[in-house]
Amino acid sequence: MTYRCFNLEIAQGIAHLQLKRAEELNSMVPEFWHELPAIVRDIDDHARARVIVISSTGKHFSAGMDLSVFTSGQSAGTAAAASSEERGRVRANLRLTVQHLQETFSVLERARLPVLAAIQGGCVGGAVDFATACDCRYMTEDGFFVIQEINLGMTADVGTFPRLCHLMPEGMVRELAYSGRRLPAAKALQLGLVNEVFPTQEAMLAHVMGLAKDIAEKSPLAVHGSKVMINYARDHSVADALDYIATWQAGMYNPETDMKESFIAKVEKRAPQFADLLPVRKGLDEV
Questions:
Q1: Residue 249, Cβ neighbours under 10 Å: how many?
Q2: Mean pLDDT, the chain, integer
Q3: Other C-beta atoms within 10 Å of 136: how many?
Q4: C-alpha to C-alpha distance for 214 and 216, rounded to whole angstroms
Q5: In this structure, are residues 239 and 246 in contact, taking their beta carbons and an 8 Å threshold?
Q6: Are residues 112 and 156 in the same domain?
Q7: What is the per-residue burial (b if ≥16 Cβ within 10 Å, else e) of 69-78?
Q8: Do residues 43 and 74 make contact, with C-beta atoms less than 8 angstroms apart?
Q9: Among 34, 49, 88, 239, which has the minimal tally of Cβ within 10 Å of its Cβ?
């Protein structure tokens, strides 16, 4: 399938999803918000890969939300111009629009497989929301993040704050949110927002694809369980997380499958061969 915003290649358990509109700085046009969740859901639901790598083209990773998204449909300006009796309904629709945009990135977080982001140049506005929904982030030396919304007279609303506050110190989040200043790659590495920084995009992508290969060789069920546990532990108390992982392990632990294959492969001095996750069943007709 051909997409306006992305190129997709799947090989050896790795789905490489690449933003392809370099000439427009990979801005997030309306199609972006439909294509991204559809692609990720398809990969995840049908177990087409074991890890997703997201990269980009051109000088910048993404300039963020395209102006056409702000001006299409019921915008904040439309709400202001509406009559008093219409204003509530218009703003209710705006709330639903924001939630739809949020869902675009939440699918990355909920996907059963890890998502790795390789970021070059600018990661601006909505692209920060995009990056923070991924499992790991890698960046080029010339890269930077900027919470651009404050520079446009609005509050970031698609996912920056709920996630960024878990990824770096709150004081720095506030500084960036209030000032609209850039966070350069070196500082982002120091704060733990990115895992590693590279001199070139080529070196970064080589590293990320190598990491993706390592992940793809592990048990998909164990990797999925690890992602579920990490996300749950982030959002709950230690006591709740310990209880949840005990329950998860009681239901998922099976020494006769992946663990057995791991031990046998070690004895036989070969790489283990693990089964893929099963496709997700969503309809009663599939039961």
A1: 11
A2: 92
A3: 16
A4: 5
A5: no
A6: yes
A7: beeeebeeeb
A8: no
A9: 239
pTM: 0.91
> Cα separation of 189 and 77, whole Å?
38
| Token pair belonging to 91 | 């703003």
Coil, strand, or helix at residue 257?
coil
91 pLDDT more than 70: no
Residues 122 and 202 in one domain: yes
Q: Which amino acid is at 86?
A: E
In the DSSP assignment, the letter for residue 256 is T
Residue 287: pLDDT over 70: no
C-beta contacts of 91-95 below 8 A and 24+ residues apart:
none
- Whether residue 238 sits in one domain with residue 192: no
Highest averaged pLDDT of the listed ranges 73-82, 163-172, 249-258: 163-172
**Count of structural domains, the chain:** 2
pLDDT for 77 beyond 60: no
Q: In what order do the strands lie in the sheet with 115-119?
A: 6-11, 14-19, 51-55, 115-119, 136-140, 196-198
CA distance 230 to 170: 20
